[in-house]
Amino acid sequence: APALVSSVAAAQNWVPLNPTQYGLFGVLGVGANLLLFCLLKAFRHVDASATSPYRYTEFVLSAIIGFLVFGERPTPNMIIGSCVIVPSVLYVAMAEYAKA
Asked: What's the rounded mean pLDDT across residues 51-80?
């Protein structure tokens, strides 16, 4: 239902993509599939809980790339959320490692 509602607004304001944007979408698709492939290969070799801490590096990498490429500054809520989530994940990872 939300897609149906938002498609009305999208149809009124749609701007066609240029060839550069099509290329960027292609690069995004290839990169996302490569990321998924590597993640699934990692799950084959180790337990999923062992790889989960690496997925949370997305917070840090997204903030760095957002700042360097787009000039975005992290909001206070984002920093507070990251300060809660990242240490929690590290604690769980260390507890799993100690248990093994």
From this structure: 84
User: What is the pTM for the complete model shown?
Assistant: 0.50
Look at residues 60, 47, 35, 62 and name the one whose alpha carbon lies nearest to residue 92.
47
Distance CA 86, CA 81 (A): 8
Q: Over the stretch 40-63, which tens digit does the pLDDT of each residue have? A: 888 888 877 677 667 777 778 888
Which residues fall within 8 angstroms of residue 74, CB to CB, at 6 or more apart? 63, 66, 67, 82
Alpha-helical regions (H) of the chain? 2-13, 19-45, 48-55, 57-70, 76-99
